[in-house]
Structures
1.
Amino acid sequence: MSPTTQPSAAIRSCVACRRRAPRAELLRTVADQAGRLRVDVMQRAPGRGAYLCAEARCFQAACQRGALARGLRRRLVPVTATDFRRVAGETVRATAEQAVRQGLEDGRVRRGEGVGTVVIVDDRLSRRLQQWAEQVRRLEAEAVEDPKRADGSSETEVRHS
Ligand SMILES: [Zn+2]
């Protein structure tokens, strides 16, 4: 693997809506040997990855239209957008919690004055935790559009201005 100095500065595009954004802003998805999707929060897993916005509509579009399978160039174990989004949120949350625990050990995080509060001393970790918190918030927000509308009309096209 070649040394990468500024991986977070790289631009990637969401496989669902094609929005281009700094890589750290998007979720990197990878598939394991069995074709099960998972979120590579640290964005370091080897192999091909596909990037996705932390948005319900992008999960919906990507799962419905096979954008992830195309992006990852492989057959995937089917998963509903809702399930994958829930697992993605849990994965990001668990990674953030782990990073805080790790930070308490190596001094990048220290205990705050209030019970259970912490102070992030390290700027880079602080930015990262903010980004993860924002992703979790978006992932856990209810899907805005339901593609199966009660009147039978379909409006599955996802457009971003
Ligand atoms: Zn997107």
Note: Confidence is low (pLDDT under 50) at residues 149-158.
2.
Amino acid sequence: MHASEFRRPVGWGKGRQVDPAALQRVRALVDGLPPRRDLLVEHLHRIQDAEGCLPAPLLAALAEWLGLAQTEVYEVASFYHHFEPLREGEARPAALTVRVCDSLPCRLNGAEALLTALAQRLGREARVQRVPCVGRCAEAPVAVVGRRPIAPAAPDAVLDAVASGDFECALPAAQDYAGYRSAGGYRQLALLLEGRRSRESILDELEASALRGLGGAGFPIGRKWRIVAQQAAPRLMVVNADEGEPGTFKDRHCLERTPHRMLEGMLIAAAVAGCEACYIYLRDEYAGLRALLGRELAALRADPPVPGHALPEIHLRRGAGAYVCGEESALIESVEGKRGMPRLRPPYVAEVGLFGRPTLAHNVETLHWVPEILERGAAWFAGHGRRGRRGLRWFSVSGRVRDPGVKLAPAGISVRELIDEHCGGMLPGHDLYAYLPGGASGGILPASLADEPLDFDTLQPHGAFIGSAAVIVLSQHDSVVDAARNLMAFFRDESCGQCTPCRVGTAKAAREIAQGQWNAGLLRELSAAMMDASICGLGQAAPNPVLSVLRHFAHELAGPPQAQR
Ligand SMILES: Cc1cc2nc3c(=O)[nH]c(=O)nc-3n(C[C@H](O)[C@H](O)[C@H](O)COP(=O)(O)O)c2cc1C
Ligand code: SF4
Ligand code: FES
């Protein structure tokens, strides 16, 4: 047979051929969405929501619809935990998924027993998936039936939810647009847009307040706005509502109660830094909040708060279950419709960010404080604080305390004070043994350091940091070694895999610490390589739990071999 007989006829594309019926189905599902590459994740959600998975013929049809290579669509679809690309002939998953959180606060509260019970008791009507933190750690353990969170989740409550047929997340009872405006909301935005308050005075006020970025890195807010404002237009803004750090749920708290405070802060920031469009990136787990924000943004657009001043474009984008997308450059990649892989810096996103434009990136809580600081003055905000620290913040507290939850407390408060003054003390029968000041990333400290001020820059000497202020409290009944195993497994699963020190390092560290005897020398060497050579904060912070054990809890390793996770 001659080789030319194998050639494709002219006009045939490479790869899987597109089935016309699949194309028709995709067109119906994505109706109303412009066929743009940056909306790829939104398109994939439409298919995943309708089908419960991403069948290969529909992915091929979507690629054609968007004018993308099939490999591009597949690599994005397979990157995110909430998408399930299905190969030809592969069985579809059960129609309903029950996600059970196994991150540390849920693990402390019986997540493993819940997983075992559900695996035994749930029939073919639903499958059980182990997932990382879903942002409801104060009510641990948590299960999510479809999109409906059950918290705290006992097996019977989950089975009842499965039987009920109601798999949607309730709409939070938030202050709505009318309520916020009638309470004086959007006044600071009006003062700015109507020229009654200058940009410079706003920047001065925010700088005097000492407000710093509350997403984890603590960059001073005023300085960031100035840097972005100095870049060439057009400039853009992204709001980071990804909140994936295990133990963190304060952004949800802010948005579920007073969404317009953050929205006003966002609009003020966009106006001061000269950003033309705002993108709010909300984690997929917050389905009720997504509906709420959709409703409130519609109300805002229908009746802009300052007559004669058009709003910038505001886009609400949906994450897809990838912790790394909380890292701002990965978030930007995701908004552009790509895999959420962090970028190499420089250039920083303030210079080259979303769609190559200078981008102002902020955490929800940072923006949430802006209107109130402008209303009440920098001295009011900076006047709070203990031990020489300044400001207020929302702490997410979970673990062995009587009353976990989101607590408004001054910067510089100690964990002992936070527990005693805001959480009703420790649970009966539990004494403080250890605490995580900043979720999975921020290290683990012993009770002997419970009087240290919780704030940026205060915990570094002890090998820890406050990050997003997710405080997880452990007692004498808990094992820090077990906690470290849980955290390292999380980093291994969430590493985007782009750089070797993080991809290989998290997997190797997880294997090494699963053993009863730890090789301290090897683990220190591995940690150093990960911290020095990883591209982003995930790989750089991943060794923290291990280093904390070696530094503060070595006595746990001296005992009989620990049970494997
Ligand atoms: C792995 C990783 C995950 C992150 N997750 C979040 C997140 O969920 N929410 C957030 O606001 N910032 C997160 N950050 C920090 C962001 O990169 C960025 O610093 C922040 O959104 C900037 O806003 P801010 O200045 O208001 O804090 C994360 C960083 C890393 C390295
Ligand atoms: S450090 Fe980890 S998560 Fe960050 S870019 Fe490298 S592989 Fe990805
Ligand atoms: S919801 Fe389970 S740890 Fe956050």
Note: The longest strand covers residues 275-282.
3.
Amino acid sequence: MKVGILGAGAMGSGIAQVASTAGHEVILIDTNEAALQKSAAKLQKIMNRLIEKGRVDQATAKGIQQRISYKKDLSDFKDCGLIIEAIIEDITIKKSVFSKIETVVSEQCVLATNTSSLSVASIAAACKIPSRVIGIHFFNPAPLMKLVEIIPAIQTDPTIVETTKKLIDDWGKLTVLAKDTPGFIVNRVARPFYGEALRIYEEGYTEPATIDWAMKEIGGFRMGPFELMDYIGNDINYTVTETVFQSFWYDPRYKPSFTQKRYAEAGYLGRKSGRGYYDYSEGATKPVPNQDQTLGNYIVDRIVVMLINEAADALYLNIASREDIDLAMTKGVNYPKGLLKWADEKGIQEVVNQLDKLYHEYLEDRYRCSPLLRRMARDTKTFY
Ligand SMILES: NC(=O)c1ccc[n+]([C@@H]2O[C@H](COP(=O)([O-])OP(=O)(O)OC[C@H]3O[C@@H](n4cnc5c(N)ncnc54)[C@H](O)[C@@H]3O)[C@@H](O)[C@H]2O)c1
């Protein structure tokens, strides 16, 4: 089957590499000639590196490159069996592009969007055959990140959900099914990792270096929240938070942080601008964390119970299955443990107690405990 990818930016290029590596002929389309050239040059560099490391041989690399055709005109999608759209995150543009693609492809062609935050249902509604539209959400960089969220819209034909999931599994990815709601699984459940860390910092408990130390050394996370925000970019991370907040009709649980907004506005974007919560200039001294165990435990407990609360609430609202929620967080953002498994280990009653303590201290809706956790504690149930 020929696979069409629209948008040759960071995501489209990565997805094209994945599809081509899986053996598909790929048509990669972008309206911007420079983006196409950059994409091809980047793939060349990646292949050279993989050859150097002995991960692929010359012939395989050549095959991966040759199977991708770089095009500018939508009509080149005509023989494709699957299109994955990865253009700018703008609902009006996406809708218009989907209705145009439909005039080119056959009725059997599946149309997928890689959107991170838009409604798949509204994109599907722009099509004559909405039942063939689905969300396939890759993570960046697509060739390295194992997790892919599959998002059926309410209009999507169940057979298409099944075949799409199987296809992406066959590409060597780990797929999870998520309901068409803001942030799907990962971008929803992960919000407190950043938000609660920023809140602890804003309250003056301690500095980013200490919060990062606690989350890594005590919590077992691979990166601390501030290191990770600097890595992702404060502009990008802030926008995702703001989008999720707005999409949830301003639920205070997802309220963005002024600290991060100001960092983004100031151009303290993180690694890419040389400065974020940390200074990345040459010779800069690294701040020393306060390795106080009591403070460290407080930080980890507070952030982890907030994460568990999000995971439990996602399960409560049927956003995804128990297994998929845990898999999404361990494979999508490398958490040391599935959050629901973590809840069992901590004890559900203990999680509820810690959340209630926060709630009673702040009297903010942000700290409200998911009804599912409360019921489970009452009935002495566990997730697994
Ligand atoms: N970057 C991430 O971490 C990430 C992760 C998952 C999903 N996404 C989603 O993937 C999509 C693409 O993101 P990205 O980071 O690759 O963006 P990007 O800006 O790197 O690339 C977008 C590309 O689309 C092209 N484009 C724009 N409008 C077009 C049109 N009408 N027709 C053809 N090409 C067009 C642009 O020229 C550009 O090359 C977005 O929906 C984004 O939300 C991004």
Note: The chain has two domains: 2-177, 185-384.
